[in-house]
Amino acid sequence: MRILVTNDDGINAPGLEVLLEIAHEIAGDQGEVWTVAPAFEQSGVGHCISYTHPMMIAELGPRRFAAEGSPADCVLAGIYDVMTHGRPDLVLSGVNRGNNAGQNVLYSGTIGGAMEAALQGIPAIALSQFLGPRTQPLDDPFEGARVHGASVVRALLDKGLWDTNDDYQLFYNINFPPCPAADVKGSQVVAQGWRPGTYFGVEPHHAPNGRRFLWIKGGAQAVDSGPGTDVRANMEDYIAITPMRADLTAHDRLADLAARL
């Protein structure tokens, strides 16, 4: 198996090293693992691509590349420039530092990388580690993903649903709970949730030179999103597995809207 790995935290992020361990275990001794990751952190860029300007790409080592672009850019670079002897069989994106559950999904560069792979017709999985008070004292805050990641990915590859056409390709979002690996109760297939009352906002600050800047700030993460959702599963110490599509249509509102108009 040929696996392409990317992330949004950057080429030197600790979560990427965890993902490489997972990828090598999945690929096996006869497989290949390639890395194309952002040269600098790209958190919050979503499915952005560098459509209006070029990006530099550098080879840092065998099958290891850094690109000055988004995770989606990195996937495109991996498919069309780096892996010239054949497309990857699987794209893994992460392991993100922090959860990509609830409305975080809509901002996530980790999700954006997996989504781009899905649009290219390649099986893709995004992986994120929910952090919190119970992971903070751990020597390895990515412990949950490191211990359970390969088995969850393998289960999806063996038993998961994978589309066989190019229309709205399916991909998967995995969030590991904010607890020690030994406390993980298992996995649940759940929907993307919505944290009520949780929003991104801005906070103004003045630099030493007097200039005024705005910092983007997020809301509380330990907010229940209801039964059958990713945040609830994580808060109850389950790995959350969510099937996703690159389709933002509100299908449940189509008929009602058509009747009204």
Automatic annotation (TrEMBL):
Query: Where does it reside?
Result: Cytoplasm
| Residues covered by the Survival protein SurE-like phosphatase/nucleotidase domain | 3-195
Q: What is its main location?
A: cytoplasm
* Recorded GO MF terms: 3'-nucleotidase activity; 5'-nucleotidase activity; exopolyphosphatase activity; metal ion binding; nucleotide binding
The residues that the entry says bind a divalent metal cation are D8, D9, S43, N96
According to its UniProt entry, the function of this protein is described as:
Nucleotidase that shows phosphatase activity on nucleoside 5'-monophosphates.
PANTHER family assigned: 5'-NUCLEOTIDASE SURE, 5'_3'-NUCLEOTIDASE SURE
NCBIfam families per the UniProt record, alphabetical: PRK00346.1-4, PRK13931.1, surE
Under what name is this protein listed? 5'-nucleotidase SurE
This chain's source organism reads Pseudorhodobacter antarcticus
Gene (name only): surE
